[in-house]
Amino acid sequence: MRLRHLILVTTALAGCAGIAQAQDAPTASPAGSGAPQATDAADEGDIVVTGYRGSLREAINVKRNANAVVDVITAEDVGKFPDRNVAESLSHIPGVSIDRRFGEGEKVAILGTDPALNRMLLDGHALASADWGGNDNDPSSRTFNYSLLAPELVDRLEVYKSPEPRIEEGSLGGTVIVRTRRPLDLKANAIFASGGYSYNDRSDKGNVRASGLYSWKNADETFGVLVAATYDKQNLTRAGVEFFGYDNVAPNADGTYNSPFVNRAANGTLSLKSPGATITGGTIADLYKAASPFGINYAYFQQQRQRASVTGTVQYRPRPDLTFTLNGLHIDGNYNNYSQSMYTIPGAWTGSVLQSATVSNGVVTAASFGAAPSQSAQLDTLVRRTKLKTDNINLFADWEGDNGAKVAFSGGWSKATGGRNPEYLFNVQTKLPFSYAFTPNSATVNFTGDLTNPANYFTNPNNNPAQIEGRPVIINGTQLNAAQIGGLDYSVTTDRDIFGGYDATVPVGWGPFNQILLGSRVTDHVNRVDARGINTYLTTSRTANQLGVPTLTTPDGTFSGSGGMGNATKYLNLPDQAVIDILANAINSPLVTKVGASTKVRETVIASYVQANFDQGPVRGNLGGRLVYTRDVSNFATTPSAVANPQPVPTRVATDYLKLLPSFNIAYSISPKVIVRGAVAKVIARPRYQDLAAATSLNDITLDGGGGNPNLKPYESWNYELTAEWYPRAGTLLAVELFRRDIRNYIIAFRQNVDYFNALQNRITTYNVSQPINGAKATVNGVLVSGQAEIWGGFGLQANYTYQDSDTSSVDVTGTVLNLPYLSKHTVNVIPYFEKGPFQARVSYNYRTAYFRTIGRLGSREMVAPYNQLDASASLNLLDGVVLSVNAQNLLDETYLQYNATPDRPTAFYKNGRTFSAALSFRM
Questions:
Q1: CB–CB of 383/423 below 8 Å?
Q2: Separation between Cα atoms, residue 318 and residue 331, nearest integer Å
Q3: Pick from 364, 214, 394, 209: which is nearest to 294 by CA?
Q4: Nearest-5° angle of CA 650, CA 653, CA 521?
Q5: Using CA atoms, how far apart are residues 177 and 62, in angstroms rounded to an integer?
Q6: Short-list 139, 6, 159, 194, CA closest to 74
Q7: How far is CA 529 from CA 233, 417, 467, 674, in A?
Q8: How far is the C-alpha of 380 from the C-alpha of 584, rounded, in Å?
Q9: 583, 427 in Cβ contact below 8 A?
Q10: What is the distance between the alpha carbons of residues 302 and 599, in angstroms, rounded to a whole number?
């Protein structure tokens, strides 16, 4: 970690400690007091603190009184959550981090574990989830896309880092419980309304945002209704350079290499595939062993995100001990996007026309090439139509007796749809000579010739017998012989969840035990992908200026500041409607169901738990266990290998397992202001749904692919927590947390070369295919230090530091041990704030060190470079109940940078831009 970050967080935490010590002296508690002070009201009499400071105090109280290791974020008021994005708020919690690959936080990692292994529960229950189909690391994950959840609907976020038996299983690092508001808890005729405008300087576009809430209850407080709605629109523009992994990164088993530039004879003699090419920085033997970029892509991505949600809650209390609650939620999200990718594959396409190569530290960092024999580069255009929809309805019946006995029945249904519906794909090629050069944070690609001239591009000229999944494409009674230029891909994900169960609390007087909690739940979950497609062909190759559509070029400044340089930053662009028109006017196959890409996983879970709560003097906590039965039925189709024109074979696999998950939480109040906690639990996290479906997807250009494994076992872990918390006075907290995760059955990607039929080449080709398998072990150890304090005159400070490290038995293609995904060794949050009278302001700074993200193309170990995020917000109460607020996100305009294992092998540079917003809100 950089020295300045260490100094920053150390100073902030030391400041919190000093303030706490100074504030603590005049308010020392009487000796012998054992129980913690339950609320801040006890500290300061009748003084009521509201606003941001009030929300922090409430969060401290919830944490202080919990029996488990919990962190909390609460809303300041109805419709007033600390951030414009729920994931961004969660990232301020110690041990929680987010990935900002698309600018805003979508998923959260908790205590060094992959976001896919941490669940989000809405009011304690699972919510079906589907994504927009463009995030390559989230195929049918079990987590939730927090960008869909309007923060105006949230009352409180609870992050349980240590589980209790009563909480639904399935999280390895921690569970996020989102609490929403209920009408009988609010005052009658509570109203909130807000309207605002946001602007992103990268897309150079602005959008409106609006939300509203109305809550009513009768005078007897026996019946209440709450309705809330939100609308948000956002334009994203991301430009950057991507590297499609690296060729020749490791020797074969016999010690030879697969150099794209050098031939090796049987007797070991080396020769250039392009005689006369010059080598700088080494010999032909160095070039033979050197790694080189498999592909270099100048990616231009545009997306418009429109999100609208409506939620409603009805509560009826026919008698004081019985309450019925009906919740409904509907979310509509339009995530339409357009991706244009101008890329070259130097070795495979132009290795035979190499003119010069520079070798540095075992990598070909620069090279130039002559005119290609077939193609030197390709422009892919992908127009995605994506509509996300989530519907949820839950019914709760809660009874509470006079003696503290409770019984609650609950049932619910949720359904989410998403994916590509459809994706229009069209591509053209060019033969122009080019050169490339790159450094750890920049890439330069220059073409000889005009890359903006449509006449320099042509469609696929290679006619072949047309087929889809081994079935011939019949046009006018005969099999079509033509060249594929693209097509339409329909890949719709449907996620559906139904649950029912009960929870009971039984008061007891068994020594230190005061409550027995027990319950059961049955869940039926279906995750399916329905794939269909159309292939599009031409019988004669055409240049782009012969396609009969308008053409554009990449806008000026698109790649500025991203690290992408050279004339490749300015290439042919097509309007999205032009792509659709080109495909419509070509030869199209019938729309067919893609058996090989369609999957269905049905999961049935039956769980029961017993939890004993105890409270004896300064000691309190709970112990118990959760018994969970899981049955998975996976339906998919396998693609036969080494067979020409293979047809997928439908397959069904069923598995089941029974797991006992014990847990123990204990809190000991050393004094009224000092609490130490300990926790130990066994937890599981189930595999991604798509990992349970063994369908194989192949890329006929990059010659790699991936599949699933229906026999995967769940991740299992023993989790340990130890914390010490000091609450010297209201609004002040200093805490230290130690944690450990001992993980078994960790799922890793196993790669092997397999021969499959390549429809573009019309022959059997070797692919590098990844498949998930169990077997790896991993441990995560970490320490969290956090503090917050109200300083003086309205100033306050929050700060935390996380250190975490992992040890795994997983290795990449070079034999290097892998870290766990999304685990940064060091993470820092510093949030100074000011709140006095009608004015409030806050600055949020976040820093995280490099982290492993995923195994990418050709087995590349995708690392994300250290990342800084600086946000700011302010608000002013103009009138009673009328507030003007402003917000700025990513003020540093940080570059998102990825590399393969070491920084000298970059794999991506992205710029997402800054976002500025303003809103006017009213509440009463």
A1: yes
A2: 31
A3: 364
A4: 130
A5: 13
A6: 159
A7: 27, 10, 22, 52
A8: 17
A9: no
A10: 29
The predicted-structure confidence for 681-693, as pLDDT tens digits, reads as follows 999 999 999 889 8
Question: Would residue 486 be called left, alpha or beta, if left means φ above 0 and alpha means ψ between -120 and 50 degrees?
Answer: left
φ, ψ dihedrals at 848, nearest 5°:
-135, 145
Query: Contact, 606 vs 557, CB < 8 A?
Result: no
737 near 94, Cβ under 8 Å?
yes
Q: Which helix (H) or strand (E) holds 57?
A: helix 51-65
Distance in angstroms (rounded) separating the CA atoms of residues 123 and 153: 12
Question: In the beta sheet, which residues pair with residue 555?
Answer: none
- C-alpha dihedral sign at 761, 763, 765, 767: positive
Q: Which of 596, 610, 520, 630 is nearest to 142 (CA)?
A: 630
Residues sharing a CB contact under 8 Å with residue 165, sequence separation 6 or more, in sequence order: 517, 609, 610, 611, 622, 624, 625, 626, 661, 663
CA torsion angle 13 16 19 20 (round to 10): -110
Angstrom distance (rounded) from CA 209 to CA 198: 8
Contact at 8 Å (CB) between 891 and 858? no
Distance, in Å, from the CA atom of 803 to the CA atom of 820, rounded to the nearest integer, reads 14
With a CB cutoff of 8 Å and minimum separation 6, the contacts of 34 are 617, 618, 669, 671, 672
C-alpha–C-alpha distance, residues 226 and 219, integer Å: 15
At a CB cut-off of 8 Å and minimum separation 6, what does 916 contact? 198, 199, 201, 886, 887, 888, 889
CA dist 751 and 770 (Å) reads: 4
Nearest to 814 by CA among 248, 406, 321: 248
Which contiguous run of DSSP H or E holds residue 11? helix 3-24
Closest by alpha carbon to 367, among 347, 387, 382, 340?
Answer: 347
- Inter-residue contact 676 to 667 (CB < 8 Å): yes
State the Cα–Cα distance between residues 893 and 454, nearest whole angstrom.
Answer: 33
pLDDT confidence of residue 752: 81
What separation in angstroms does the CA of 596 have from each of 468, 753, 872? 10, 20, 48
Segments in the chain below pLDDT 70: 1-50, 78-79, 82, 134-141, 812-815
Question: Tokens at residue 141, please?
Answer: 């994950």
Q: Give the pLDDT confidence of 825-842 residue by residue, as tens digits.
A: 999 999 999 999 999 999
Single out the residue of 178, 236, 179, 233 nearest to residue 210, CA to CA. 233
Which own/partner pairs from 119-122 qualify as long-range (CB within 8 Å, at least 24 positions apart)?
119/143, 119/168, 119/170, 119/171, 119/175, 119/176, 120/144, 120/146, 120/175, 120/176, 120/177, 120/178, 121/167, 121/168, 121/175, 121/176, 121/177, 121/178, 122/178, 122/180, 122/329, 122/392
What is the pLDDT at residue 135?
A: 60
Beta strands per DSSP E along 36-136? 70-74, 96-98, 108-110, 120-122, 125-126
The reply to whether omega before 465 is within 30° of 0 (cis) is no
In 3D, which of 126, 26, 121, 16 has the Cα closest to residue 60? 16
CA nearest 611: which of 658, 657, 661?
661
Q: How far apart are the first and last CA of the chain?
A: 47
d(CA 286, CA 263) in angstroms, rounded, equals 13
| Nearest Cα to Cα of residue 533 among 488, 583, 486, 474 | 488
Residues 703, 765: Cα–Cα separation, whole Å: 8
Q: Is 110 exposed, middle or buried (0-12, 13-18, 19+ CB in 10 A)?
A: buried
- 3 state SS of 137: coil
DSSP for 348-408 reads: HHHGGGEEEEEEETTEEEEEEE---SS-SEEEEEEEE--EEEEEEEEEEEEEE-TTS-EEE
- Judge whether 246 and 858 are in contact, CB under 8 Å: yes
